[in-house]
Amino acid sequence: MYDVIVIGSGIGGMSAAGLLAGVADKKVLVLEKHTEPGGQTHVFRRDGASWDVGLHYIGRVGEKSRSRAFFDYLSGGELKWNRVTDDFERFVYPGIDFAVPSDPKVYEQRLIDRYPDEEAAIHRYFEDILEVEKWTVRGAARGMVPNVVDLLLRALQRVTGRKAKQTTKAYLDSHFRSPELRALLASQWGDYGLPPAQSAFAVHALIVSHYLYGAWFPEGGSGRIARTFEKGIERAGGAIRVGQEVTEILLEGGRAVGVKVIDHRGPTPRTVIHRAPVVISNVGAPLTYTRLLPTDGPIGAKTAPIRALMERLGTGTSAVTLYLRLKATAASIGVKGENYWIFTDTNHDQTDVGSQRLFQGQPRMVYVSFPSLKSGETRFHTAEIISFADESAFAAWRGQPLGNRGADYSALKQRIGDGLLKLAETAIPGLTDLVEYSELSTPLTIEHYTSHPGGHFYGLAASPERFKSNLPGTRTPIEGLYLSGSDAASLGVVGAMMGGVGAACQVLGSNGLSMIKTAMRAGVKTASNGVRPSEKKSAVLRYKEQLTETIWRLDFELNQPVDDYAPGQFARLRVGDGEWRDYSIAGVDGRSVRFLISTRTGGIGSQFVATATVSAATELELPLGQFTLLDNARRKVFVATGTGLAPFLPMFGALQAMGKLDQAELLFGCRVNADNITRQLTPMPARVTPCVSREDPPRGGMQGRVTDALARLEFDSNETDFYLCGSAAMVADARALLERRGAKNILVEVY
User: Fold this and answer.
1) How far apart (Å, rounded) are the C-alpha atoms in residues 512 and 508?
2) Phi, psi (degrees; rounded to nearest 5) at 701
3) Model confidence over 385-405: pLDDT tens digits?
4) Angle 271-272-274 (CA atoms, 0-180°, nearest 5)?
5) Is this model's pTM higher than 0.70 or not?
6) Distances (CA, A) of 17 to 22, 211, 237, 619
7) Cβ atoms within 10 A of the Cβ of 674, count?
8) How would DSSP label each residue in 335-385?
């Protein structure tokens, strides 16, 4: 059915797919393990707010730049960019607060003004940065050219680049006398994942030069990237399919012919085979060569040198991220959208000490970003605090289910999060008082969603050895198999995109780059072959009812029945052009799908629900998610607030059909009695406890929050299952309370 299969929907894979679709009308199937496309450019949402997980800023996407031309072509011109404030970086150390401007001349002069004795070295530094950047870009371009040109570039790279192939520390130590200045210039090492003593000056120069003219951020957030690229892929008959875990690249006669996949969209995972004459892996070289391809036999022999090289190189570090929802815009405390790099000392290379202190709640460094300010979001205010972490400290919880790793894990996360916020507060006074909700991700979170072992999302380490080595880039020893992404070119969003461009060039043949340039000059194709992906079902709104001031019931009729649905799963609803939102399914009956959706947040999804009229047409992608009913004899306590009741309704129906509804009881939280939708919906357990926080409760209810009810609830930890769904804050508080009380079976849907 497809001309090309792409493994992974990160920027490299989506770029390769979009170019092949737009330039050569290739039907491309993109397979993504996560339920949300985009890889490190995807976003996640909680109660209307959203956070960008991997893209925090991009350089050199101004008008007429090369990177901008690719983004414009692949997005059909729909992806817009916001310029980050002029002083877009702040390097903060004890006694130092240095603002980095969006002009290299001004940047250079600010450094000279602060360190006048180092003027000549500073001038030379900016010259060397640009020289080494050109060398590094030439190396990354190898993946875009025919073999014969690649051989020439490879030879040229080997005999040049002495500066590029030393460590960042070696360069800085040999050129600057001031330890403080050396530390200041190395402040952005977090952008490439290795401290100065381990990183190559090549990658340092690439990153610094990338931001010499400032930074940009996608208007509406980084999730817009995958959603705008997707349209071009679908126009040519391709598709992006989520919930697809590729476990093997299929080989016949020594060449790639397809992939084996575990499809996680239904209630029971199933194995599926997809075949195509070309496979592009966008999940990184280590995963591709050690997990998706055999390591023994003829194929193992072919890839052995690459695997040995990768083992020597290793990977970059991993990280923890504290996601913050703020009560008001960070502009109220003087933030303009700039990034903060905050350090407690000037020694960047004591990473082992840094990890130890991080786990004690005393981090040595943090990076702070404000995605809502950068994206132009005015309704929901967000921040992110990142610090680098040794994944081995989390090994004890590897293999335990996401969202239910126990009290010790939650306590460690709380300690880390408190420490991150405390250090951020030292440079951004007032931030702590703005925090309304927080959530911490760890290397285990990254590994769960991306499959990168240990959460090493940077890919192959950007060390001198990497730039001295003979990595094959986009090509592989396997016919019909190519690599895209950062391991195929260079680090960062734009670097990974260039890996995708290189993979597309190789698939198109020796004239691939010329074909791409010609197509980009001609502009985006708007004609479609009329084929819509089977994952996206046409839907018409057939029934709409307002249950409370902010909660609506909506019933959609699909163009085809829903297959393999299990009570508790969710669907993705198109609520605008390129805008999709996830909602729990409140019921399925043949081709009819029911939802309970709140308009409380006032976001794009809320606006769609409030204004949609019966007979309105849209699309649904379903079913998705692993939040399903456990078939056992244990007591089942369901805890919900608002529309968090939605996934429980079909679960109650399933229990009723099995004659087991008496196992269930419901704690339902609402502010006032008018919001108690349990009275309007069926079926319901016999034991329903409305928890009303701002009014006297009805008979059988209680005054207070659902967490107050959970604090009093008597239960056997071994014989009770808890199902939680509702506001992010309620779920977090309820889970923490239950963990402290010894509950062992806590089920949540984390998407």
Assistant:
1) 5
2) -100, -170
3) 999 998 888 989 998 888 889
4) 150
5) yes
6) 9, 27, 11, 22
7) 12
8) --S-EEEEESSS-TT-HHHHHHHHHTT--SEEEEE-HHHHHT--SSEEEEE
